[in-house]
Write a structure and sequence with these properties.
mainly beta, Immunoglobulin-like, 9% helix
């Protein structure tokens, strides 16, 4: 009896694998994100011995990572949690995913001498970026709108144009083009003709892609514009002096416009609002003509939202033949000689026509240069031409407080000596030239603008020609510009655990600004500014950046806020921005991975794990909830003998955020866990409501365990226990005799199967088979029992030898002792006898029980024959 049980224990020990590896079939990730490729394993005799363990990850045929008793060799972006390997976790973390990471990965686990490998496919996606490049339309004209969709993967994408939410027809989509990083880009266009009765329109370009949970779009409220008119003119002096070219765009709307100078086709400068709401803009270019530069092509290029292509005006640089505000600068050499020859006659002629010549004396309006100078000076230009004598120039500036300053080029040095501040405030430079006996002048006034002096000041430029004055007035408007905040307060983590807060302000004028920091919950406490910088913008305005540091643990209070306040003379009241852990811009919200779980087997422990990463500050509230099968209510899982909560290990990553793995160990029962769902719930100061990840409904399985194989009279009784779910199939078959290997089914009338439910929710089945009836009752033959269940990878087979009415178990091709006799006085269908054999594992594999005996049957029979019978058999054969 003991020998039979020991042999059958060896038989069943080989039915189960020593190592099992589990991975999902595939995983998805976005470009630039981090992803975990789950891989778990379990062995038959825990605890795990690290000396026999090796974990290898492959990408195709390339080895990425290896971990064994000699240490770990890993890829720079790919790691495994060495501590978690003790619990059967070999998952691979891949950081900063790119398209090149797409493909099939292999998780190979070796637990000497067993090894098993599983494959998992990583699919990569990239979300598209959508941008409409033109957002201003012209009424009653065809307008072509362009939408660029970039940086998406895979290739398939859908682009739809919408007007007030309704799809627009007639759009076109280009063939997707490949970017250098493997992502794709496309362009879509649509043509619309807005009319007077189509106001309050919203145009949008909507994109649908498999990387998006919902469509994204770029849109705009329709704004009607006016295209600019462009002209070029020059303010010129002598050939060896600087020449100022002016490119002027007028009457356009809205305000933004781009203007560039092109010299021989290569790119080598702010608008004023008109009474009708449109804008003007001038672009100045100063050049000193030389013999080499004469004949050069110079162009002015103007780009505006209303233009489908830029406007380009071109002219040649031709020395003194260029016009200056309508006057011609022609060489005076020949005329001077002519005047010398005619002498007194020419002077008399000039005196007679003196009045006429004065009427030809022309003064242009004052122009303001928009070119940006390193010294931040504002430059005003004015020219006069066709004067018969030298021209005297005087500038008069009436400042904001009503004081008037008079400045002239000839008197500037004396005035500067008398009033040093005057010389620093204003500078006048006047250049003269002479052509055909007439004098031409260009005069320039420069100053550094100051709001207290120059806001809404008036400038007068006065020319005196032959004691006759002409003057031009100019209203200089220096308006302060409000600071703008292009982005919210930015947060960054420091090694010390502090949070670096930074704010950027743009496009303000004048330069002086005050930025302060404070923080608190309801009551704000002043903070020390860590760093503050003020820099120049490209349009004579300024930008500022300010920083401060605060302890990171203050963000554990959801109501805690950091406030940046700024004050500027353009503002009636100080303005501010705030940031807290609950704001959408807070960068360190926790990210939950999928719950990884081993196969859920009845009567075993299953470890559920969820990795939470990317969060700050450290405190994290983790709860496990359970939803019972057929019940919508959630219950909090509490520690007990059935539920265990391992200590959560928290680690700090290279980006200074935190990562942890929450675990729940469940003692599985088919009665309570089948169809149930476990949910990991995570709370954090940055979350208005907790995040959740669920396992989905669990499918519990229990592997059949064979017990109490006995013989009652001429029947075989076999007990199969601890299986789940209830559905199981046991088939019996036999041979005709011992000389044939073909098995035939035993009729159902000779088989009795009785199923019972155990107290722990699993099931037990008593199967009774009577292999022979009638005249065949004494025939020697083989009998086979096959157990099939969904928890088994392959059916379990048991083979018996019926010989002379005695039944033997065939184990690994060897015939064992006869089966024990069942107690005929006891109903075996309700028995709970102790185990004769029990599998130590829950997942059987193909066993040797299905093989026929390797020793010939005649020889096996001889081994079970007494010496006396052997002698008689030999005599009979002789």
């Amino acid at each position: 009896m003991e020998r039979t049980g020991f042999v059958f224990l060896l038989l069943l020990h080989q039915m189960y694998a020593a190592l099992e590896v589990t991975v999902p079939s595939s995983q998805r990730a976005l470009v630039g994100s981090d992803v975990l490729l789950p891989c778990t394993f379990r062995v038959d005799n825990p605890p795990l011995n690290p000396q026999f363990l090796a974990i290898l990850w492959y990408f195709g045929d390339k080895e990425l990572l290896r971990y064994d008793n000699k240490g770990e060799s890993s890829h720079p972006r790919m790691t495994i949690d060495v501590q978690a390997t003790k619990d059967g976790t070999a998952s691979l973390s891949v950081n900063n995913v790119s398209l090149s990471d797409k493909g099939t990965y292999k998780c190979l686990v070796i637990y000497s001498p067993d090894r098993q490998q599983k494959e998992i496919r990583l699919d990569i996606q990239a979300a598209p970026v959508v941008k409409i490049t033109k957002k201003t339309l012209i009424k009653n004209e065809k307008n072509v709108l362009h939408c660029s969709v970039t940086n998406f993967y895979p290739k398939d994408i859908k682009v739809t144009w919408l007007r007030n939410g309704q799809a627009l027809g007639g759009s076109t989509l280009t063939v997707p083009q490949t970017n250098a990083d493997g992502t794709y880009r496309v362009n879509s266009t649509v043509t619309i003709t807005p009319t007077e009765n189509q106001d309050n329109q919203v145009i949008a370009c909507q994109v649908e892609h498999e990387s998006l949970s919902r469509p994204v779009q770029d849109g705009f409220q329709v704004v009607y514009g006016v295209a600019p008119s462009v002209r070029i003119y020059s303010l010129q002096s002598q050939q060896d002096q600087e020449r100022t070219l002016v490119c002027e765009a007028r009457g356009f709307y809205p305000e933004p416009v781009a203007m560039n100078w092109l010299l021989n086709g290569e790119r080598v400068e702010i608008p004023r609002k008109n009474a009708d709401g449109s804008f003007n803009k001038e672009l100045y270019y100063q050049i000193r003509p030389t013999a080499d530069s004469l004949g050069t092509d110079i162009s002015c290029e103007v780009q505006h939202e209303t233009l489908s292509s830029p406007i380009t005006l071109q002219r040649k640089l031709e020395g003194d033949r260029n016009k200056s505000c309508g006057s011609h600068l022609v060489s005076a050499i020949f005329l001077s000689a002519l005047f010398t020859a005619v002498g007194f006659a020419a002077i008399s002629w000039f005196l007679i026509h003196k009045k006429k010549h004065f009427q030809r004396f022309v003064v242009t309006p004052i122009h303001r240069s928009q070119m940006r100078n390193d010294d931040k000076k504002v430059t005003l230009y004015c020219t006069a031409s066709n004067c018969i004598k030298d021209v005297q120039v005087t500038w008069a500036v009436t400042e904001r407080d009503g004081n008037t300053c008079t400045i002239s080029d000839s008197a500037s040095r004396e005035e500067e000596e008398r009033d040093p501040m005057l010389g620093r405030d204003y500078t006048v430079r006047t250049d003269t030239s002479e052509a055909q006996g007439l004098h031409n002048v260009i005069t320039i006034l420069s100053f550094i603008p100051n709001v207290s002096k120059h806001k809404n000041m008036e400038v007068l430029c006065k020319f005196v020609c032959d004691r006759k004055p002409k003057e031009e007035r100019f209203k200089y408007e220096l308006n302060s510009s409000n600071p703008t905040t292009p982005e919210p307060i930015k947060l960054a983590l420091c090694d010390s655990g502090e949070v670096l807060c930074s704010l950027k302000l743009q496009s303000f004028y004048p330069k002086d600004i005050h930025i302060g920091w404070s923080c608190g919950v309801g009551h704000y406490q002043e903070l020390e500014t860590f760093n503050e910088r003020v820099t120049d913008d490209s349009y004579q305005t300024f930008s500022a950046e300010s920083e401060c540091r605060i302890p990171g643990n203050l963000f554990t209070d959801p109501g805690f806020k950091v406030r940046a306040t700024w004050n500027h003379e353009s503002l009636d009241l100080p303005e501010y921005r705030e940031v807290s852990a609950r704001d959408p811009e807070f960068p360190w919200r926790p990210v939950m991975g999928e719950i990884t779980q081993p196969p859920v087997r009845h009567g075993t422990e299953a470890k559920l794990q969820c990795t939470i990463s990317g969060y700050f500050p450290d405190p994290l509230d983790v709860k496990w909830l359970q939803r019972e099968a057929g019940n919508k209510e959630l219950f909090i899982v509490s520690p007990s003998e059935k539920y265990k909560f391992p200590v959560i290990n928290v680690s700090r990553e290279a980006d200074k955020t935190y990562t942890c793995t929450a675990s729940l160990i469940v003692t599985v029962s088919g009665k309570t866990e089948h169809g149930a769902e476990f949910i990991c719930q995570v709370g954090h100061p940055s979350l208005a409501r907790p995040m959740e990840r669920g396992t989905g409904e669990l499918g519990v399985t229990g592997c059949p365990v064979v017990r109490n194989i006995t013989q009652r009279k001429k029947s075989i009784i076999m007990e199969v226990n601890n299986f789940y779910p209830q559905s199981i199939e046991i088939t019996w078959s036999r041979t005709e005799d011992t000389s044939k290997e073909k098995y035939i089914s035993i009729s159902d009338s000779s088989i009795s199967n009785v199923t019972h439910r155990n107290s722990d929710g699993s099931y037990r089945l008593i199967s009774t088979c009577k292999p022979q009836k009638g005249k065949f009752f004494e025939t020697d033959l083989y009998v086979k029992a096959v157990v099939q269940h969904e928890a088994l990878r392959s059916p379990v087979e048991a083979i018996f030898l019926w010989k002379k009415g005695t039944i033997y178990l065939v184990c690994n091709g060897k015939i064992t002792d006869p089966l024990p006799q069942a107690d005929v006085s006891k109903d075996i269908s309700n028995s709970t006898a102790s185990d004769i054999t029990r599998s130590p594992e829950c997942d059987p594999v193909t066993t040797e029980t299905g093989k026929e005996p390797e020793t010939p049957l005649d020889k096996q029979e001889e081994e079970f024959t007494s010496p006396e019978k052997k002698d008689r058999k030999k005599t009979k054969q002789t």
